[in-house]
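=== RUN LOG ===
request id: a7f3
mode: sequence -> structure
chains: 1
length: 207
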Amino acid sequence: MQTVEGGLREQHKARRRIRILEAARELLRQGPESVISTERIAERAEVAPATVYNLIGSRDKIWEALAAGFMDELERRLTGVAAGDPREVVRLTVRLFVGDPVVSRRMVREWEESGLVLDRSPLVQLRQAMADARTRGLLRPDIDTDALAAVVGTACVGALHQWVVGLIDDERFLARALFALDVALAAAAADPYRDQLLAPLRTRGAV
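=== RESULT ===
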């Protein structure tokens, strides 16, 4: 009986947490500079301010939780879609951020540890896609694909921050992220696939 009750309590907590985070997103979408406070989120979510603090945490934890929500959604979109295709991993990641620009820009600007925003997903999927490419012979067998994926991830975070502050638009955000990936793939290409992996760099315009 206690186990069942405990399970129900956890379900109620999970539902309240979802309501709280959706309330935060709704407040952000009201305007790019909407004030985000525990009290306003609690009012919108119809919970007590203490509940926001207990289930999410401090203000920075709210941004962290929103980032985790982005990555959960990205993992859902990537499941079965981008297997073995690092370019699709990058495309879907960029589309997720530009699809909800007000929320994603504020989240990246306000969260102190926003440099970690891609560390869980898509980096896990990108590592796997790079490893699959090496297994298929596209990349040289001596390549450390985890390190290669990390370099691409760092470049994508840089492009993300440029997009967040308005230095580049949606199209250029995607172009720069894909360019970083294509440079990495070309540098690691196995001889039979070198021309194929270099081709996107030869045909690409300014990024």
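=== NOTES ===
Residues 160 and 178 are 12 Å apart (CA to CA).
The two ends are 61 Å apart (CA to CA).
=== END ===
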